[in-house]
């Protein structure tokens, strides 16, 4: 298998494993009732996992030299298995929170960071497609579990299902570690792409952060309140369930298709198209339209969210270079963590406005404005060359990032 093939296989396997975090809602209610927790605790477990995810990815990115990918994936396997196993036998809310919120959240940061970093080393001409497949696997896990999970939980109970998931996730992460290219392949790719460590402008990282935060915030609000939004648009229970499904399917499609398309049309045009589509779709959800149009809007929101999620990885690599990617992307990814914590809360406030909810939901599109302005500034700041490297503008303030010592 080629180095690119191993990267795709390893990254996709790792993300498929840890993406199961987003299926937490399948067992959350039963688990909370069994350990004597309230609904607020189950929400806190997931929110903690998201925050831990982002913090872990940032911390790993700041390590210099970067630990080997295989080592980090094995560490993720141990931490994930311990966290889910501990949660499966928990008898109190604190243990449940620690196992899923802290340990499994940390495993997500380790595995996702490694997977994104490996995809970033793909040749620039194929970087979008490779990143799309790797990142899409993270969204595939919840979809697969969502199809069979409810029946299994009803029959076997949440503890057995969580224990089985602990074994499955551990095995998948160990398989990913075995598939991951070794350090020799990593350094060969760095040299091939001309990805020598170079200074990265703070302005560049800030612009990428704004694009990511503003680009995903409206979609995360829709994800968090999909059933409520669908019902408010006049969809019945069956159609509301379909709305949730097409939202998730659109996310998966956007990750694969958006990455592939960006290799042809470019990262910035692809991001611009995704931002525009999100704004139009949120506007549609704030108006009275037929059910078919509502479902189309849900699908488009999912596709746009998936597109932004994958292209932010590729465009970060294009702008900062392969060697600087782990640290820069660690900072950029905190945008997703912030949006993931703020957007659902904002949705509660907007949708709790009674008769004004339809007009207020359009406010959810406001974060797209700073995202669009940041994307425009990013496009004007500099353009990546064919190798994905970024030329150095003379006027940009720069901050040195530690580089990996050269091999002797």
Automatic annotation (TrEMBL):
Pfam families tied to this protein: MFS_1
Annotated Major facilitator superfamily (MFS) profile domain ranges read: 1-382
Q: Which residues form a coiled coil?
A: none
Q: Where is the composition biased (Basic and acidic residues)?
A: 389-408
Q: Where in the cell is it found?
A: Cell membrane
How would you describe this protein's topology in the membrane? Answer: Multi-pass membrane protein
User: Which key words are in the record?
Assistant: Membrane, Transmembrane, Transmembrane helix
Q: Which residues cross the membrane?
A: 7-27, 39-59, 71-90, 96-116, 128-145, 157-182, 203-226, 238-256, 268-287, 293-316, 328-347, 359-381
**The organism's place on the tree of life at top rank:** Bacteria
Asked whether the UniProt record includes Transit peptide among its keywords, one would answer: no
* Keyword Transmembrane in record: yes
Region annotation Disordered: where it falls in the sequence: 385-408
Protein name (record):
MFS transporter
Protein species of origin: Rhodococcus antarcticus
């Amino acid at each position: 298998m080629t180095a690119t093939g191993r990267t795709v296989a390893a990254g996709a396997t790792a993300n498929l494993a840890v993406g199961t975090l987003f299926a937490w809602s399948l067992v959350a209610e039963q688990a909370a009732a069994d350990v004597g927790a309230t609904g607020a605790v189950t929400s806190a477990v997931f929110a903690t996992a998201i925050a831990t995810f982002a913090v872990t990815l940032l911390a790993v990115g700041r390590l210099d030299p970067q630990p080997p990918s295989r080592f980090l994936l094995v560490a993720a396997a141990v931490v994930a298995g311990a966290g889910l196993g501990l949660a499966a036998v928990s008898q109190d809310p604190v243990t449940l929170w620690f196992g899923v919120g802290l340990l499994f959240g940390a495993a997500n940061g380790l595995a996702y960071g490694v997977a994104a970093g490996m995809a970033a080393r793909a040749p620039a001409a194929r970087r979008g497609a490779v990143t799309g497949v790797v990142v899409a696997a993270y969204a595939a896990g919840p979809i697969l579990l969502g199809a069979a999970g409810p029946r299994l939980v009803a029959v076997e109970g949440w503890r057995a299902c969580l224990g089985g998931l602990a074994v499955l996730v551990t095995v998948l992460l160990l398989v990913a570690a075995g598939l991951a290219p070794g350090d020799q392949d990593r350094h060969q790719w760095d040299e091939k792409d001309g990805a020598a460590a170079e200074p990265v402008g703070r302005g560049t990282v800030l612009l990428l952060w704004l694009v990511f935060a503003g680009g995903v915030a409206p979609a995360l609000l829709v994800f968090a309140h999909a059933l409520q939004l669908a019902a408010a648009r006049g969809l019945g229970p069956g159609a509301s369930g379909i709305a949730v499904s097409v939202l998730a399917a659109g996310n998966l499609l956007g990750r694969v298709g958006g990455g592939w398309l960006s290799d042809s049309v470019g990262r910035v045009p692809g991001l611009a198209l995704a931002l525009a589509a999100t704004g139009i779709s949120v506007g549609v959800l704030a108006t009275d339209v037929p059910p078919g149009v509502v479902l189309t809007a849900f699908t488009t929101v999912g596709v746009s969210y998936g597109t932004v999620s994958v292209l932010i990885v590729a465009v970060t690599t294009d702008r900062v270079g392969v060697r600087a990617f782990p640290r820069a992307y660690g900072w950029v990814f905190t945008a997703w963590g912030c949006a993931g914590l703020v957007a659902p809360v904002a949705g509660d406030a907007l949708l709790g406005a009674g008769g004004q909810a339809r007009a207020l939901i359009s406010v959810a599109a406001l974060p797209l404005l700073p995202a669009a302005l940041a994307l425009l500034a990013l496009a004007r700041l500099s353009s990546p060359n064919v190798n994905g490297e970024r030329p150095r503008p003379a006027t940009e303030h720069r901050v040195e990032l530690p580089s990996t010592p050269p091999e002797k």
